[in-house]
Design goal:
11 helices, 5 strands, five-stranded parallel sheet
C-alpha cells in the first residue's frame, strides 16, 4: 500500500486491537497495520528483525508484560536508525510520568477517554501528515515559526492562542488560560505552562522572521505570556485584513 503509514498496534487486550483494526480503514485510511500484539515483546521482536518496517507505534501506558516506560527504554536500546513515532494512550494527569515518556522518545500521550477520530488525527499529526481538514489560522501561524505538532506542548500552545483570541485575555490572565486548557486536556496547569515553554525554546532555535519580530517586540525577553499575546495580536490583524479584503471585492 504505497504512501501509507506502516503501523504496529500494541494494546493490553485483543478486543481493543480488533476495534482499532476495524476502525483504521474508516478513520485512518492513511494507515497500514503491519503488526499487532497485546505485549511489548512482540513489538520489540518486530523492530529488531525488521527495523524499517514500522513507522508508527500505537500503544497503551500498560501492556501485558511491560509498561510504556519499559517499552521505550527497550526501543532505545535497539538504536534504530529511523525509530518509529510513538503515540501512547494513558489516563489523565500524572504530568511527571508524561514528561518521563517524552524524554524517552514518546511523541504524544493521548488522554482517556478519547474518540477514534481524535486518535487517528493525532497519529497523522505526529507523522507529519495533516488530517484532511484545512489548516486553521493558528496552525498556519505556528507553521511560520517552524513548529511541528510532535509534542503535547504544540497542542497546548495552539489551544492557548485560540483561547487568547477568543477571550481577549490580557497578560495578567494568562494563568487562567492554563487552567482552562488543563481542565480540557486532563493535565496540570504547570504541565501546560512547561509545554508552551518548550515550544518557545523551539521557536528560539528555529529563529524564523516571525520569531525575530516577536523577540523585538518583547525587548529580547520572550515569556510565555508575551508570546501568546503577540501571536493573538497577529491573528487579530490577519483576520481584520482578510475581512477588509473580502469587503473590497
Amino acid at each position: 500500500m504505497k504512501g501509507t503509514i506502516r503501523t504496529f498496534v500494541a494494546m493490553p487486550d485483543w478486543q481493543q486491537l480488533e476495534i482499532l483494526r476495524q476502525a483504521m480503514p474508516v478513520f485512518g485510511p492513511q494507515f497500514e497495520q503491519v503488526g499487532a500484539s497485546v505485549d511489548g515483546a512482540a513489538l520489540l521482536r518486530c523492530l529488531g528483525e525488521h527495523p524499517d518496517r514500522v513507522e508508527l507505534v500505537l500503544t497503551d501506558l500498560f501492556l501485558r508484560d511491560m509498561d510504556a516506560v519499559e517499552l521505550l527504554e527497550h526501543m532505545n536500546q535497539l538504536q534504530l536508525a529511523h525509530p518509529p513515532r510513538v503515540l501512547i494512550t494513558a489516563g489523565t494527569g500524572n504530568e511527571p510520568l508524561r514528561s518521563k515518556l517524552f524524554s524517552l522518545g514518546a511523541d504524544y500521550c493521548l488522554s482517556k477517554p478519547y474518540t477514534l477520530q481524535k486518535l487517528f488525527e493525532r497519529a497523522q499529526l505526529i507523522c507529519g501528515k495533516e488530517p484532511q481538514a484545512p489548516l486553521t489560522r493558528v496552525r498556519r501561524l505556528l507553521d511560520r515559526l517552524a513548529l511541528v505538532p510532535n509534542d503535547c506542548g504544540y497542542l497546548y500552545l495552539e489551544d492557548a492562542v485560540q483561547a487568547m483570541v477568543r477571550t481577549k485575555a490580557p497578560h495578567a490572565l494568562v494563568k487562567d488560560v492554563y487552567w482552562e486548557i488543563a481542565a480540557v486536556r486532563g493535565v496540570s496547569p504547570q504541565g501546560v505552562e512547561s509545554g508552551i515553554r518548550r515550544e518557545i525554546q523551539r521557536m528560539q532555535e528555529k529563529n524564523t522572521p516571525l520569531f525575530q519580530a516577536l523577540r523585538r517586540q518583547c525587548g529580547g525577553d520572550v515569556s510565555n505570556g508575551r508570546a501568546l499575546r503577540f501571536l493573538a495580536e497577529c491573528l487579530h490583524r490577519e483576520t481584520a485584513q482578510a475581512g477588509q479584503e473580502e469587503t473590497e471585492r
